[in-house]
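Hi U.,

Before I forget, here's the chain from the pilot set. I'm dumping it here mostly so it's searchable later in email.
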Amino acid sequence: MRTFCPKGLKKFFCLFFVFLVVLVQIPTKVSAEEVLGDSTEFSDDQMSLLVVKPSVVQITNIITGSLVLQSAAATQLNAPQLTGRSYDFTIGFTGSGFFITPDGYLITNGHVAKSEDDLIAYYGLAQTSEQILKDAIYYVSQSNYYYTPTESELEEAYQYALSSTYGGSYDALVDDMYSIDYKGGNIEMDSVTNSNYIQTGSVSGTQTIVEEQGKAATLIDTSYVGDFDSKDIALLKVEGSNFPTAELGSFENIQIGKEVYAIGYPGIVESGTGIFTDVESGLEPSITKGIISAKKSLIDGTEAFQTDAGITHGNSGGPVVDTSGKVIGIATWSFGDNPGGESFNFLISVEQVKSLLSKNNITAEQSLTSQKWASGLQNYSDGCYSSAKKDFESAKALYAGNVDIDQFIANSQTKIENGEDMCVSDTATFVVIGGAAFCCLAGVGLIGIIVLILATRKKKGKAESEPEPASKK
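Structure:
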């Protein structure tokens, strides 16, 4: 999806955002077979990633507001009648986030939850500049030529103005209105609202679907104001319970070369649904692997990491975990959209997350949902499919947003019906063999007692029949 970078903003920063005038994803669920293949036994790394995966959600920030033309802008357009005219816009930015408490506290980037004004203004102009220019042409026609153009004539005049003044480039028109009019104070922004929603595998699509089916998230705290430092994190709260959670790790033992995994919703993948990926692929977090390639100090002096794990716009705010599945950093900035920048991505340390939680008197904790899910995965990997199915069903009853859980339940049931449940078979064999052994031992013991009784009786009877010895005379 094309992104527009306003003049005066750092290009690599604005490229983190996905411009969503209309979201086009299809609401579906994802098959766990895509994760598992034919294997049912997981490596330690696979187990850790599967455990943390359900805690990662997509976050959509739907932003509404209006751009108001001041007299200077209207005069420059030769349409003073437009002074004070408001142009409404609705845009959306997507990112990633992850739950850290069962009752709905989650972490993301500040630039995901509360975008900076300059960026909102640019994308607002990208949505309204055509209408502003057409309105100017309309009023110029009426005022100067006393003629009211038809829709087709207005469109033709707009295309001529775009071609003659801006070389036919709409981007050039937007850049001009942003850098000259907005930055010059001739266009002001008003009534801006940020509305965050979380989405999982079955909830994605248009603005209406996101608002009606996604879960609203309240912004609790962020210090983000557009700087490239450790303040680019935000704390959100979703009403509810039993959300799956990610476990926070520590950066103290993180060394150069350590393997890490980034988990999130890259816009380049999600926007391709129905184009180069089937619509059944749906909305599922992507996992990319890399290493810690450097340790850096941010402009505020705090420590951060550099990694070559794949991160792009849409990944912002997602967790980066070590091989044990513990969060060691938050995906934040990338040079991936710049030539040669694909392997240069940056993470804010998890220690900054802990500081934000401490500031708000919140303690990260593991949820019962995640415990049941982890237990089910372990039982599944061990071949204990009855126990796994029970755990999965318990986890689903607590939280139904896990995109893999239905497939695991179905797979477990199939294994049980095919007689592949190792734990049930072993138990049954033990019971049968143990029962037979008990019976045998009991029978031998009973026979021994009977023989002993008979022998005792025989000995006693023989002793009673023998004559007493004769006495000496």
